[in-house]
Design brief:
mainly alpha; Herpes Virus-1; two-stranded antiparallel ribbon; 9 helices; elongated; disordered N terminus; Zinc finger C3HC4 RING-type domain-containing protein
Amino acid sequence: MELLSSSRQDACLDCKHNFCRECIFGHLKKNASSCPTCHIPIFPSEIMRNQFLESILVAWKAVESELRTLETHKKDFPRLTVDDMDRALTHMAGSGASQFVSTVATQSSSSSTSSASAAGASTPSATSMSRGPVVNNKWNIDTKSILNEQKQPKRMTGVASSPMRSSSTTATEAHAESPGPTQMTQLTQMTQMTQMTPSFATPSLY
């Protein structure tokens, strides 16, 4: 407390002990090379400023005057405390309580409305309930696959069938295949030549 109240500069050793800067250097000048608290060997070059303690000193100097003022008015503390509590209770019993009640009512009404809308969205209506289980579950039927099958061309399986030919085409082909009179004469001559056999005298075996 003496160090905090004074305006002296602080010094921090490697062992994390803090001393007054003038005091620790005076201690080292007396042919002592160890910490006064833990007796760990130290050197003047190892002495550093403790920035954390400096920030505490700055904060202490800021509130020191306020603490001294409070010490002089300590007898008024009970009265000030009672007055503060009375004002807080009056505020809660008045506008504060009514505002709290209205806020709770608004939140409860909004939560009930959201729950009712969610229940209505998840539960089918009475008209759909009377149409049977198939119609009630019609939103679960996936119609995309059926539409895609209708749009895709049908695949041909097995032997490919020949296209249908018209009657005129068939008659033309039949007329082209039937032989003419010249062809008939040639066929007759070829048949007669094949039927003619050479007459050779076969010697009798007896």
